């Protein structure tokens, strides 16, 4: 197989409909837009318009907000870490931090830190360096002979001087 021989499966692509190309084409003259009126002309965007009635997105109250200071952690269970060690993706003897978890494919991208939860069982003696952990996760890791070092949160950006 060569690169220039690769094609889509039969029926995977559909040719676009060429409108306004004569009466014999079946979609000539008005090009499937009907006759006259606002929607038959170009440049029309009437999504959400309810004919002058107060639209639903304005009738309903606003609710909630997005906190720009919230932290978004990668949540990882101790069972998931143990599975990665058993599969040989993680080295249980070295300290496990966010970069090691990313390299092993346990987490996809680094966020504001890693938080460990107690779901699953841990057999290996782990040394974890993470942003947070649940109380039961800490107990499970320490029961297996490991330790969890909680990292200080990253300092926030300095406020603008006024």
Determine and state the CATH class of one domain.
Answer: Alpha Beta
Please indicate the percent range of residues in DSSP E strands (runs of 2 or more): 5-15%
- How many separate helices? 4
User: Which second-level CATH architecture of one domain applies?
Assistant: Ribosomal Protein L15, Chain: K, domain 2
Shape: elongated
Q: What distance separates the N and C termini?
A: 65 Å
Along the chain, the helix and strand elements come as: HEHEHEEEHE
Question: Would you tell me the overall average pLDDT?
Answer: 90
Any idea of the CATH topology of one domain? Answer: Ribosomal Protein L15, Chain: K, domain 2
Radius of gyration: 29 Å
Helix content: 10-25%
The largest sheet, given as strand count, sense and whether it forms a barrel, is: 3 strands, parallel
Biggest sheet, spatial arrangement of strands: 1-3-5
Show unreliable segments: none
Structural class category: alpha/beta
Please provide the count of β strands. Answer: 6
